[in-house]
Amino acid sequence: MNRMISRLSEQQNLWPWLLLLPLSAYLLVFFAVPLADVVQMSVTEPTLGLQNYEKVLTGSLYRKVFLNTFMTAGIVTLCCLFVGYPLAYLMAHTSRRNAMLILLLITMSFWTSFLVRTYAWMVLLGNNGPVIWLIQAMGFEEKPHLLFTRFSSTLAMVHILAPYMIMNIYSVMQKIDKSLILSAESMGARGASLFRHIYLPLTAPGIANGSVLVFVICLGFYVTPVLLGSPREQMAAGLIGHQIEEFLAFGLGSAMAIVLLGVTLVILGIYHRRFGLDKLWG
Amino acid sequence: MSSYLSLKGINKSYGDFVALDDVNLEIKKGEFVTFLGPSGSGKTTTLMIIAGFEKATRGEVEIEGLSLAGLDPQDRNIGIVFQNYALFPHKSAVENVYFPLQMRKVKRKEGMRRAEEMLELVGLKGFSHRHPKELSGGQQQRVALARALVFGPDLLLLDEPLGALDKNLREQMQIEIKRIQKKLGVTTIFVTHDQTEAMSMSDRIVIFSQGSIQQADAPLEIYHRPKTQFVADFIGESNLLAGKVVDAASGILSSPVLGDCTYSGDHQPAVENGQDVTIVLRPENLTISRDPIEGRMNGRMKIETIVNYGDNALVIGLSGGVPIRVRVLGADVVILSEGDECCFSWDEDAIFLVAE
Amino acid sequence: MNTLMRVIAYAVIIFIAAPLVIVVPMSLSTASSLQFPPPGYWLGYYASYFSDPGWLRPTWNSIVIASATTVLTMILVVPAAFALVRHKFWGKGVANLMLMMPMAVPHIVMAVGYYSVFGQMRLVHTHLGVILAHTCLSVPITFLVLSANLKGFDRTLERAARSLGASPLQTFGHVTLPILRPGLLISALFAFIQSFDETVVAIFISGRDAETLPRKMFDSIRQEADPVIAVISSLLFLIVAIALIAPHVVSALRGRFTTKGQEKALIAQ
Ligand SMILES: Nc1ncnc2c1ncn2[C@@H]1O[C@H](COP(=O)(O)OP(=O)(O)O)[C@@H](O)[C@H]1O
Ligand SMILES: [Mg+2]
Questions:
Q1: The CATH number of the domain where C188 resides is what?
Q2: Fewest CB within 10 angstroms: A24, A92, A196, B336, which?
Q3: Is residue C206 part of a domain?
Q4: How many structural domains is chain C composed of?
Q5: Which 8-state DSSP code applies to residue B184?
Q6: A80 closest CA partner among A190, A194, A157
Q7: Which atom of ligand 1 is nearest to the CA of B39?
Q8: Widest CA span of chain A, in angstroms?
Q9: What pLDDT digit, counting tens, does each position of C197-247 carry?
């Protein structure tokens, strides 16, 4: 037995493939096959041809949904950046203890099921919820309708995805050499110009990482938009689910899924070319 | 005594890169041999081939005439101390030392007793239940040593074991290792790139350069009679000057810098008349004076730089465009200043020839 | 500039904390629908949760599915991680990329695929179907965590073991495995959580029989009827909170005890 193992490990080329075999076979059957099935359905359901793609790419409903999806993903990414950058900055420049506490809060939020967080926003923004209560307590008469709007779903998605952005930016900021900033200051860089010429470029990799991650996750987001969003402003994943579950329109649903996948892969592909995909998830 | 460990014509290539080129070496039983050479010269590779972790492309490793070729590392009975100690972090000191006995099916009670004894020998009595991260660098070093010795290895290999320690601890550990090695009489190969360490500890030093052995001799032999230009340059400080043998029989050579001069014939390599040689002159064998000194051979130089070390100083001058380094006593240096013209002189037995 | 950043940062802290803070009080509210401030407090809905099979069954399903997913994922990923971290071979880069793909594909896309393929294989509405799908989705994160651990493993430790007389198998058992144990546990935890939290694929394929907790929660939130959702949310949040805070508390306490112990030792001397 031992002999056999050492003999095997000598044949450097065989051993790794043997170790990889189970997982490769598994992914082939339970990842590649279902994916291929989606591709197949998109061009065979209900009849052979590209009519599903034609519909998805030209039909006004689908165009509107995809446009809405991109816009939402873009807005969510920008909001996450707006929300995440200052907090990461604070973490990088406050005492160790405070940074640890904030980090604890963020990891707590990160690890809490996003269903729970979605539900919490439902409570917060509900018609009898604390936000409305606060608005009325401040003396406003009118009860604004917050739930099931673009606002509520965007807000919840920002909350759910912000930790990705914060962690990415924070990890870059943490590594910035303080003496670099000092030397820039000694050369006369101050305030806004110090920030623009030194700090921002140094944190750019974190921003890029976080933005790509947030944008891509947001593109395919299903749960939160479905639960909190306006039914009239669906996002792509929600519509795909709708097509399959309600209308059994497998062809159309699959074609949309493939388009969504295509866009996602193009973005990740560009990222991979520039930075390497393995960096994305830290 | 006949040789115990033999390396016979070892070659090792990684693709096109030749890491070891025809390494031959005989080591006697109980001998303390040091591998000395710059980083990347093949010392570790040689150790790894002996230990069985790397396979030689060509050549044989033999212990008492028997080839190790068919033996896996675990069957070679060789103790190794790695540079980073490689202590098992999940085991306490005594469990680390017990491990090789455990692998040899020694009963736990008996094994732990022997492990404790060995820890005592390396001076770690009372530390046996600490885990590696609770020990200082020097203490970890001792545990690693105990672990490599407890099972009575035929051979002990130490790969730059003192590299990570500070200077005082290093010197202390040099003495310790030497003491323990003597006590146990284990045949030892010690790798270092520190020449004073090599000089002070070894029975024999093996100089590596670019994958081949330059010279394998006793420390003083290496220092005074370097066989190659590399060794002369690497060990101690040297002035290496080009020269040509004029008369080998009566010991006369000529050199552009030194002119014609005589050298003593003892222990010089075999040379022929007219042969190009490298002349080795150690800086401490040169003397500086205002005027030529009678009874010695003299050259002239202009002082360029004086580097002061307190009790001594290194004077670097130019003679015929070639730099000459002279070591002088601290007291003598006050009369010298940069830019001075002066004489440097040497005895005829200060000259060593390297014929390559 | 700095003060503005600071003000925004504090606001963001409130923004992040608010939904987490609200969850536990809501679960104690007597109101049967969302209402703030709560009209009163009680533990009645906790009692409902622990006695309602409609909630307990999905919870149990999720635990079973996540456990099985963890085991299967580890069986597949551990050898692969060893291969990819420790060996150089042709096609390694591609293999690495392939492993990460399930992370790059939106779950809704996979859900459509599983819905169709598992439907033909009679795997929808079964535990096995969900386990097989979840394993696939758990592979990338588990692999990432494990390979990071494996990369940090000092291989001279294995050489040391070999030189001390251990066979490759003994080396693995006595040295490699024990030292990697924390990394293995953490990567297994990631696999578990990935499965336990997975919602989209479960919505499409778990059906009534293999209904997972997230699926049940999704339906419940969608229907906005059952106040027990507040209970399960607060429980899930509390588990995370305790798991994250406990180590800090323990090390703080331990730190205090050791300093006390050291003080005593100093006094004794
Ligand atoms: N696995 C390897 N692949 C390619 N080259 C190697 C490998 N191991 C060692 N080398 C090369 O062999 C040479 C000798 O290395 P080594 O024996 O470690 O030197 P030393 O221990 O004297 O510093 C070095 O140039 C090193 O780069
Ligand atoms: Mg080395």
A1: 1.10.3720.10
A2: A196
A3: yes
A4: 2
A5: H
A6: A157
A7: 23
A8: 83
A9: 999 999 999 988 999 999 999 999 988 768 899 999 999 999 999 999 998
Residue ranges of domains in chain A, CATH in brackets: 1-44 (no CATH), 59-279 (1.10.3720.10)
Residues C32, C163 within the same domain: no
Ligand 1: centre distance to CA C161 (Å): 22
Q: Which ligand is nearest to the CA of B161?
A: 2
* Element containing residue B236 per DSSP (H, E): none
Q: Which of A167, A255, A257, A265 is nearest to A207 (CA)?
A: A167
- Per-residue pLDDT for B130 more than 70? yes
Strands ordered across the beta sheet of B17-28? B17-28, B3-14, B58-63, B66-67
Report the SS3 class of residue C201.
helix
**B39 and B161 housed in the same domain:** yes
Collapsed DSSP state (helix, strand, coil) of residue C54: helix
pLDDT digits (tens, 9 = 90+) for B210-269: 999 999 999 988 988 888 889 988 988 888 988 999 988 888 898 888 888 888 877 788
Q: Do A115 and C96 touch (CB under 8 A)?
A: no
Q: Other CB atoms closer than 10 Å to residue B133's CB: what's the count?
A: 8
Q: Are A236 and A257 in contact (CB under 8 A)?
A: no
Residue C37 pLDDT class (50, 70, 90 cuts): confident
Domain that holds residue B209: 3-229
Terminus-to-terminus CA distance in chain C, angstroms? Answer: 56
Residues B179 and B327 both lie in one domain: no
State which residues form the domain around C136: 53-225
Q: Is residue C35 part of a domain?
A: yes
pLDDT in tens, A65-91: 999 999 999 999 999 999 999 999 999
Count of pairs with CB atoms under 8 A, one residue in B, one in C: 62
Contact A222, C200 (CB under 8 A): yes
- As for how many domains chain B has, the answer is 2
B42 C-alpha to ligand 1 centroid (Å)? 6
Rounded to two decimals, the ipTM of the complex is 0.91
| Angle at alpha carbon of residue B237, lines to B235 and B238, rounded to 5° | 100
Residue C233, domain member (yes or no): no
Residues C178 and C221 in one domain: yes
DSSP string, C86-150: H---TTHHHHHHHHHHHHHS-HHHHHHHHHHHHHHTT-TTSHHHHHHHHHHHHHHHHHHHHHHHH
Same domain, B123 and B241: no
Least Cα separation, residue C261 to chain A (angstroms): 25
Which member of C34, C104, C110 has the closest CB to residue A264?
Answer: C104
Chain B residues closer than 8 Å to C166 by CB: 74, 99, 103
- Examine the fold and report which residue of B170, B198, B229 is the final residue of a domain before the chain moves on: B229
Alpha carbons within 13 angstroms on the beta-carbon side of residue B50 total: 30
Maximum alpha-carbon separation in chain B: 77
- Please give the average per-residue pLDDT across A156-164, as a whole number: 96
- Picking from A9, A19, A27, the nearest residue to C98 by CB comes out as A27
CB within 8 Å: C162 and B104: no
B207 and B334 in a common domain: no
Ligand nearest to the CA of B160: 2
CA pair distance A52, B27, nearest whole angstrom: 80
